[in-house]
Specification:
Elements lengths: L1 E2 L20 E8 L3 H12 L4 E4 L15 E2 L6 H6 L4 H25 L6 E9 L6 H10 L5 E2 L10 E10 L2 H12 L4 E4 L6 E4 L4 E4 L4 E9 L9 H4 L2 E13 L8 E6 L2 E10 L2 E12 L6 H13 L4 E15 L5 E4 L6 E5 L5 H17 L16 H23 L16 E6 L2 E7 L5 E5 L10 E3 L4 E3 L6 E2 L5 E3 L14
Parallel strand pairs: 1-16, 2-3, 2-11, 3-8, 5-13, 11-18
Antiparallel strand pairs: 4-7, 5-7, 6-7, 9-10, 10-11, 12-15, 12-16, 13-14, 14-15, 17-18, 19-20, 20-21, 22-23, 23-24, 24-25
Helix pairs in contact: 1-5, 1-8, 3-8
């Protein structure tokens, strides 16, 4: 079984961009080369701005390539949760904004002739008898005039109640972003890969974006990194970082289900759909979420997902397994726009698991805001907003969780153990001379020894035994076994430690 997303198996490896190795000056510096960054670069460069996209790894191979590839207008946390906090006008605006973004994706695919397996599909919401969400969903959909159908008796999965939305879609998100990047790269739109941003410095008349080998001077900088980089605590304290998992499988039959399926079973949600390319057919399932860095055993979450599909489909073999990250906003709406009044930095974060559509919407809103044009959705997603009445409960819960993790790890004693005792391929947090260190033993027996304190806010990282990473339970930063940042708000790698073994 491949450890990595199904989308990465169909990556166009002929598409590559250079590393930035010298200082440059542009109008807009975009940090992040996923769907938000590339979509924003497209719109800004089309309007005449000189743009540089700075991607730490490969374009599209971060969060975008670890998503479901589903495109829909409702939201992950359902219409009923949105209606519990906002009036019908706001709920309608959210749906309309997501329709506009979905249409923009389809227009790009048509205009640039991007081969990404785009396909219109219905979205099915359904639940078992132990869950009570669908009745309220139908009520809200009726109130905002969002058309739906009742599920038919020939529905391919077990259910008690549900509804169906037409004209949603699916695609291969990595091929889409690679195709879009290739189409827009020009003298006016430069894309750089393997270019890690270590700091962003905002001055009165410009922003300086620092990489290991260069400084980018720009009028504006955009954090298109899923969550803002650095100490942007007005966002990190209102976002809950979560990981969930994806698996792909081959079936023994040709009865792959057509559509996007969201099933709620005793309040656990699983997303299922099929994918075909080059004569190969796959079943994809996503679910089993948990707070980043807080799983007792990450592998158990994948087993939960496998058990779900094995009970409902005739599985021949599992082919891929991967994890994906999302940030859930306390008031249910993303933060898109200037990080604060008159700032030269812009953010786009809090997409939950709805980021493919929200990332495209963010590009539209940010481009209009930079150009000084009115956007009908700017106000409801305004990044500098404050909604204490709508976010207080979630704000208190998330920050109590962070405080609990910090205090728990503060009192962690660890083992002053012999590092030789760690099995190959395993890791442990140990204490040496009063210092907490993160130790990973490679298969060849050599050790990677790092500080166990996250470089964002000094929370202690935890080992992810599925993805071989060090994950921070406070604000979601993740690091590989060399200490380099994989994702999250941290700018800098974990400190390398030299000890006498």
């Amino acid at each position: 079984m491949v450890e990595g997303s199904l989308w990465n198996s169909y990556s166009d490896e002929n598409i590559a961009y250079p590393r930035l190795e010298g200082d440059i000056a542009v109008d807009i510096a975009i940090v992040g080369g996923g769907i938000t960054g590339i979509s924003t670069a497209q719109l800004l460069s089309e309007r005449g701005y000189k743009v540089a996209v700075l991607e730490a790894k490969r374009v599209g191979k971060g969060t975008t390539s670890h998503s479901t590839g589903n495109l829909y207008v409702i939201i992950d946390q359902l219409l009923s949760s949105l209606k519990s906090k906002y009036n019908e006008e706001i709920v309608k605006k959210v749906i309309l904004s997501r329709w506009d973004a979905l249409k923009k994706i389809e227009q790009n695919i048509d205009h640039f002739q991007i081969d990404c397996d785009f396909k219109k599909q219905p979205l099915f919401l359904f639940e078992d008898a132990n869950t009570v969400k669908m009745l309220e969903e139908k009520k809200v959909a009726n109130k905002i005039d969002l058309a739906f159908f009742e599920l038919s008796k020939t529905f391919p999965l077990d259910y008690d109640d549900g509804l169906q939305f037409e004209d949603q879609a699916q695609f291969n998100p990595l091929l889409y972003i690679q195709g879009l990047a290739k189409a827009i790269e020009s003298e006016n739109c430069k894309i750089y890969e393997h270019t890690i941003v270590r700091a962003i410095e905002e001055e009165e008349e410009r922003v300086l974006v620092h990489t290991p080998d260069a400084i980018v001077s720009a009028q504006y900088a955009i954090h298109a990194t899923h969550t803002p980089k650095g100490m942007e605590m007005q966002y990190h304290t209102t976002l809950g970082p979560y990981r969930e998992y994806g698996i792909a499988a081959k079936l023994n039959s040709v009865n792959y289900p057509e559509g996007i399926f969201w099933g709620y079973y005793s309040d656990k949600k699983y997303s299922v759909r099929s994918y075909s390319r080059g004569g190969e057919n796959y079943l994809i399932a996503v679910g089993s979420p948990h707070k980043v860095g807080q799983a007792k055993d990450n592998k158990e979450h994948v087993e939960d997902l496998k058990n779900f599909v094995q009970k409902r489909f005739d599985i021949a073999k599992f082919t891929h397994v991967w994890g994906g990250q999302n940030y859930k906003p306390a008031d249910l709406l993303p933060y898109i726009g200037r990080k604060k009044t008159n700032s030269r930095e812009f953010v786009a974060t809090g997409f939950s698991t709805d980021g493919l559509v929200y990332g495209s919407l963010a590009a539209m809103i940010l481009t209009d805001e930079i150009e000084g044009k009115f956007n009908p959705y700017e106000d409801i997603y305004r990044a500098a907003r404050s909604n204490p009445g709508k976010s207080a409960e979630k704000f208190i819960k998330e920050n109590a969780n962070v405080a609990g993790e910090f205090l728990k790890d503060l009192s962690f004693k660890g083992d002053d153990q012999d590092l030789v005792g760690i099995p190959p391929g395993e890791a442990a947090i140990v204490t040496r001379n009063g210092e907490k260190i993160a130790v990973y033993k490679k298969e060849d027996g050599s050790l990677s020894i790092l500080s166990a304190l996250c470089t964002h806010m000094a929370c202690m990282v935890h080992w992810n035994n599925l993805e071989n990473s060090w994950d921070c339970p406070c604000h979601g930063s993740r690091f590989d076994t060399r200490g380099e940042v994989i994702e999250g708000p941290a700018f800098n790698p974990l400190k390398k430690i030299e000890i006498d073994k």
